[in-house]
Write the structure tokens for this entry.
Amino acid sequence: MKPTITPKTYRVKSFGCQMNVYDGERMGELLSEKGMSAAPDGEDADLVVLNTCHIREKAAEKVYSDIGRLTKGKTQKKAPMIAVAGCVAQAEGEEIMARAPAVGMVVGPQAYHRLPEMVEQAAKGQRSTDTDMPANAKFDLLPKRRRSAPNAFLTVQEGCDKFCTYCVVPYTRGAEISRPYSDLIAEAHRLVEAGAREITLLGQNVNAWSCEDEAGRTVGLAGLIHALDRIEGLARIRYTTSHPNDMDDALIEAHGEVAKLMPYLHLPVQSGSDPILKAMNRSHTAESYLKLLERFRAVRPDIALSGDFIVGFPGESEADFQATLDLVDEVRYSQAFSFKYSPRPGTPAAEMDDQFIPREVMEERLQRLQALLNRDQFAFNKAVEGQTCEILIERKGKLPGQWLGKSPWLQSVWYAEENGGEGALGDLATVKLVEAGPNSLRGELV
Ligand code: 5AD
Ligand code: SF4
């Protein structure tokens, strides 16, 4: 690679989960701190960070085609400097460096605090890779948070020790680590001072978070939520993603005790069939999962439930799949995410290759599952029609005076102010939910 110039503008493109969105925001803050600025919409950036996701198929191919698009028809002088970050960087960094000379640096999810330094090196024509995984180091080295959207993310926990047999996360994000209590309280305060009204606590296994509090007592996520509850100016608390096995009584009870804790739970189940759950190494059964949900509903009857599903896991029979449909029928999710199984290199399930389910069968099962999930999502939206609730205004709509926000149950709600008046971003507006659609609701300002 020839020497290039030091970039003045950057763009971070994040794919995949909310953890990546958080990481992408932090990378942007880091680059801004070093004097770069975010490229305006529609303009080319001098530096493009591809913050990648490896969880499902074709992740690496997508990276190569993005690189191709960024460099196509451009001279080396005009082409942006490219950084590959995130989980594909972690898993396939060396190969990317070898295959894509246009990439100036590869930086894993635990090493991105080194990004500015690596950009400087790339500007001198030196390509570099950092996929080390020292726990917690990067958080201490990131700049303090200065600006925030009304709804902010706060990573409290990273990594996963569960080793579900289909999943790459334990390999790309490493072992479970919890960020220290005092750091999180301080970051939450800063986010609120910077304009956040809602904080979503993030972690691959967010409810595995545990640490000593200021009095030296070991607390779990519920303890952290109670502490955040005391922050003035913070109106709403959410957390995601939880694992059924890390759920404790205190967290369930918190849903009945903390008014700021929103009535929403994302708890992936993946399948409703016990033999498949076993083969997935999920260490819960359909029944134990349902029992857990009942306990949440007992303390918070209106709680909105969400989940993740994989169809077509190796060996999944029609009866196994039917068990998943039965579970969905019983739970009545307010929203859910469902995916076709995708063999990930290096995971145990990818070795179960004699039992692969044909693509057409997977496709057909996914459609049947999604039809049920869509039915339930619409029904959930319909069920709150006529109610009045607060929505947190997150952005402007397309038309003047139109505002978009989230209900406590994480539904998208929009309303139009009469006379096209100016509402304020970050306000909690009280609206009557007048009309439910499959994916959103129309509200009227009260
Ligand atoms: N194939 C399909 N879906 C997967 N997920 C994780 N790994 C795979 C895979 N190999 C899904 C799970 C998880 C969500 C984040 O992605 O449902 O909960
Ligand atoms: Fe992947 Fe399972 Fe860990 Fe979730 S709990 S990140 S699905 S290994």
Q: What stands out?
A: Residues 160, 162-164, 167, 169-170, 204-205, 243 surround iron/sulfur cluster (ligand 2) (CB under 6 Å). The chain has three domains: 9-135, 138-383, 388-445. The chain is about 35% helix and 25% strand.
